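Q: Please design a sequence for this.
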């Protein structure tokens, strides 16, 4: 596995955490699972999406994307992992559209704090 593929996998896991945590929280609340109310988990999730929003508003390219692109300039082959994860994660849309999506998603994450509040103290 190429080093750039490892960075891409880390990036994919970050995106999966940010996007996937919302349905996990909602479903977990439905089934009354306590871990979805864990303050550390919830604030880490909120911080992760707010970091993406801040990057986008400032016009900063994600450091993981920069790192991967730098590594790929050295390595010329396109791997299986690179091909499919890029198909899943990257879209060819105007930057303003992505910024709007990030802001709306961050608002959804913040609203989830109201709808499914974390415990007042962490139980994990």
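A: Design:
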């Amino acid at each position: 596995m190429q080093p750039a593929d490892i960075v891409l996998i880390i990036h994919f896991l970050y995106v999966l955490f940010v996007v996937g945590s919302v349905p996990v929280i909602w479903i977990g609340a439905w089934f009354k699972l306590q871990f979805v109310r864990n303050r550390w988990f919830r604030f880490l999730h909120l911080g992760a999406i707010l970091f993406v929003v801040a990057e986008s508003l400032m016009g900063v390219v994600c450091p993981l994307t920069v790192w991967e692109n730098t590594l790929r300039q050295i390595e010329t082959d396109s791997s299986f992992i690179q091909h499919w994860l890029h198909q899943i994660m990257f879209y060819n849309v105007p930057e303003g559209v992505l910024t709007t999506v990030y802001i709306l998603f961050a608002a959804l994450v913040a609203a989830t704090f109201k709808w499914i509040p974390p415990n007042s103290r962490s139980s994990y």
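Q: Thanks. Anything notable?
A: The two ends are 35 Å apart (CA to CA). Residues 3-115 form one domain.
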